[in-house]
Amino acid sequence: MSDADHPTVIRAVEAMEKHTATVPGYRRAHPRGTHFHATFTPAPGVAALTTAEHLTGPPVAALVRLSNASGSPYAPDRKPSGTGATLGLGIRFDLPSGGHATWAAASISAFPARTPKEFIQITKLQNPKTGRPSPLILAHIATHRHILPGIRAIASLPVAASFATTRFNGLHAYFLVAPDGSRRAFRYHWLPDAGEAALDETEQRPAQYLVDEIHRRGAASWSLVFTLAEPGDPTDDVTAVWPDSRETVTAGSLRLGAAVEDEAAVEATVFDPAGVVPGIELSGDPILRFRSQVYSESFARRTHETS
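Predicted structure:
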């Protein structure tokens, strides 16, 4: 039995299908997106922190997927409440030795579930018709107060002016493995070189404008920044926010190139947040491994469906 056959993973995907307006043939999350060829250039100093080959050598080619995270591919980029939708940046690094490394980041600053069970619970509190949570979510928060940072992050998202002016956060903790074998916990972020920018309430846009905007823009880049943990910072809890005072290191630069002409040819790519290579190790965060399994189950289902 594969990891994706685990009953908890099945329950999670079924909850997403029932409560987040997913559509057959599409991803169960981040169903609407667009792909770009890209170049990632590692920063010279990061080789002292990790032996990961895409972070320690010359620039590498990459595939980037920018997306709206809502369950439905027809969801608007500005929510009916006036707040912004959660957005995603998935990346596949082409490794010099062959093969790939993958990551998946989101525009929220914290995740609203510490465990797979909590993820299923909060998913079941979504209303697929309105896109809003059930009033029962207040009772859930009252007994799970550690999820408040994630709930606030989602509820207060600004309306993005562009993918190119959006910050994306890796959310989970990982470990950098240095050439001497030492390990350092970190979280990563993609900071837009154009600066963060949002729309105000008076600016009108079509319901779905972000994909068209990034294609018209024709250029975008982000700096990869690592936040390094201090002793005592939790690495197994994606709901826990580390202090802003933690040391940061610029690890590289990501620059979009040409748009992928045949979107269908790359839509099967899975941007697994657990797709690391030697030099980076997964933390004990149960949501990190769970997301990887859910992505696998989502892929298996959508590739056998007709949209």
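Summary: The domain at 3-302 is CATH 2.40.180.10 (Catalase HpII,  Chain A, domain 1).
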